[in-house]
Amino acid sequence: MTADRGTARKWWTLIAMALSGGLIMLDETVVGIALPTLRNDLNMSQTSAHWVISIYMLVFACCAAAGGRLGDIVGFRKLLIIGAALFALGSLACGLASDGVMLIAARAVQGLGAAAIFPMTVAMIMVVFPKDQRGIAIGTLAAISTVFLALGPIVGGYLSEVVSWRWIFWINVPVVVAATAIVVVAFPRQPSRDARERFDTSGFVTLTAGLTLLVFSIMQGPTVGWISGLILGCFAGGVFLLIGFILIEARKNAPLIDVSLFRLKAFSAANLIIFTGQYSKITIVVFGALYFQDKLGMQPIVAGATLLLAVVGFPFLSTAVGRMADNTGARRLVLNGQMVATAAMFLIALTAQSEGLKWMVAGLVLWGLGMPFVYAPVLREMANAVPVQKQGQVGGIGVSFRLLGGAVATAISSSILSVSGNFQLVFFSTAILMLVALLFGFMGLTRDAPQPVADRSLQDQNNDVI
C-alpha cells in the first residue's frame, strides 16, 4: 500500500508540474500572437508593446536563479505555492490593465511568480523519481507541458480575434489553482532546511540590476539614440555589474549561481544551446506573428494556425526523445536537433524577404522537428551533472539562461526591426547565433552522460521523505 501511494504521488506530482510548466510555456506563445491586437487597443508604441514580452522574460530570467536557490533553502513545495499565488494575481491584473504601463507592471508580477514556479518543475521531479526514470519523466513533463506551448498560437489568435485579448491572461487562473491543489495533496513535505542557510542578496541585486540595464540599453537604443549618454551609461553599467556579479559569486560559500559549474564544458555548452533555443522560439512566435500580421496581412487566428506548425510536433516527440536520452545520452540527439533547427531558421530567413509562404512554412515545420531533440536531453544532462543539494539551483540556472535568451531576443530583434524594418535581418541574426551555439555544442558536449556528484542517487536520499 505504501509503495502504491508513493507511485501515485510521483505521477500526480508529474501532472502538476506539467500543468505548471505548460501554463508558463503557454504565456510565452499566446501573448506573441495577440501583441498587435493589444498594442492597438492600449495605444502602445511598437517598442512599448515589445516590453510586454521582454519585462516578463527579464524578471523571469533574473529571478529564476533566485527561485532555484530559495527552493533549496525553504523547500520546493512552499516556494511553488507562493509562486502560484503571484502568477495568478499577475494574470488577473494583466487582464484588467487599462493602459500599457499597468500591463507591463502586471507582466512583471507574472514573471516573478513564474520564476518561483518553473525551477521547481524539474527539481520536484528529481525528488520523487529515481535516476533511471528521470529521462522519461522529464520527457513526459515536456510532452504534456508543450501541448500548452503548441496551443498558444491558436488560442491567442482565437481569443484576441473572437473574444478579447484579456482572456489570454484570465485563462491562467483556474489552471494554476488546480495545479497548486495537486501539489498540496500529492507532493511530500520535505525535512526542515538548515536555518544557517542564507539567501545571496548581493548576488541577486547585482545580477538583476546588470541584466536590466543591459536589456534596457538594447531595447531603447533605437528610440533614445545609441550614442546618447543614457544608453551608453546603461550599457556600461550593465556590463560592469555583471562582471561584479561573477566576482561576487566566485567568493561566496552559498552563491545564488555557482559559477564553478561553468567550468564543465558540457554544462556551459548546454546552457548556450538552451539560450539560443529560447532565442529562436521568441523570434518565431513573437516576430513571426508580427511578420504574418503586419507584413502579410493575416488575421490573428490565421497567423496563430500557421505558427502552430512550428510547435505542434513538440508533444509527440518529447517523451520519445526523453526515453532515447536515457539509452544513448544527449550529445548526438542535441547536435542533430540543433543542426536541423539552425538549417530551418536559415530557410525562414532566406524566404522572408520574398514573402514566400510555402518555404517559410517548411522552415517552421523543420524547426519544430529539430528543437524537441534539444530541450529534454540537455535538461537531463544538466540535472545529472551536479550534487543533490544543488538540483534546485541547476533548475534555476537552466531557466535563467532559457528566459534570458527570450529577453535578449526581444531586445535585439526589436532594435533590428526598429532601425531597419527588415524582418529578414531578424531571422538571419537568429540563425547565425544558433550556428554559433551548434559549434560550441560540438566542442563542449561529451559523448558520455556526466555522473552525479553524490554517493547515493537522489531517490535514495529522499526515501524518508516519500
UniProtKB/TrEMBL annotation:
Annotated GO MF terms: transmembrane transporter activity
GO terms for cellular component: plasma membrane
Keyword hit for Transport: yes
Keywords: Cell membrane, Membrane, Transmembrane, Transmembrane helix, Transport
Keyword Transmembrane helix: yes
Entry membrane topology: Multi-pass membrane protein
Domain Major facilitator superfamily (MFS) profile: 13-449
Protein name, entry field: Multidrug resistance protein stp
Gene (UniProt): stp
